[in-house]
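The protein record reproduced below.
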Amino acid sequence: MTLVTKLRPLALVAGFLLMASAARSQSQSDMLHRSAVAPPEDLRSGLSGQQESDEIDQEIERYFANLQNTGSTDLDAQRLDRLFGSSGAPADHGNDQSDADTFRFNNQANADDQDMHSHRVATGDTIWNISRRYNVSTDSIVDNNPELRSRPLYIGEEILISNIIQTPAPAALQNRMYQVKRGDTLSSVARRFRLSLAALKRLNNLRSNQLSVGQQLVVGRQSGPPPGYRYEALFEWPLRGVITSGFGRRFNPFVRSATQFHKGLDIGAAMGTPFSASRDGIVIFSGRMGGYGNAIFLRHTNGFVSVYAHCMKTLVQAGDVIKRGQRLGLVGRTGSATGPHLHFEVRKWRNPINPIGALNMRELVRANQVAAR
């Protein structure tokens, strides 16, 4: 068998793979540029009707509206900062302000963030032009609305737009230091760390080549938190169990002909299973709702709110200060629930976040703050 004969099957396989890849790329492009279509008849009432989380939306809206009505000072935010501080790197770290900025995560939110929106799909909308309108990637739209992987946009439906959810946290950089020893010269230190003499002097703002024993020199940047800080999960799981319903559009479990946007996770667990706070915060609501039964809302630093609903029993009251991991209540099926589970939501201000994305986010905190928990 000649070499050409042996290579021919490999060439055919490679050609087939290239054709398949090109077909997938074309299919993905078609999906991104396909205009929104009218929803099937059996879904129209669900798209235009009341969404499942309207109760929670209204309660959170009422809370923030009351804050605005009482004046420009957000007393709860001040209380949270006094109790828990705000996350972020020290402002004086590094040689200049750009070094401090290096420690900000892409998915670390500030009070002024307006990165999350709900968008009502209109005639002529495509995933592509919606991504351009909100300055987000097409991937982020599909990730936050996974049903769009298998169907077109429906006119009138509400989709979540976010440019911070599921964004990997970039590696933070800090100064790499070297302590001058007897016999060291600026040139020898530069050679040791593969720096030019000019770069070493620039890193340390040196005007001469003179060194003293014990002097600390910046010799580069390395990954990791700055001294006295560490990374920690932004949110923790309130309990472990089977996820019976995820974030995104789903059929209403009571009216199968209607779809609704589910703005949280349903975590199945036995009746009476205790659940805990996902993050330090203060209780801003603890009481009975309609479809969500017994519910608890916690407010956290940096504008985050977490929600825990369908509880058999709540163990906290409005105004209580809560620590991460503290028991909040017991799993139940109060309100409209097909079985015992915890409905868990995360909001940034009024806007819903995919809880899975929030649970995968990290923040930079002081080491003594973590040790005190």
Remarks:
- Residues 87-114, 164-171 have pLDDT under 50 and may be disordered.
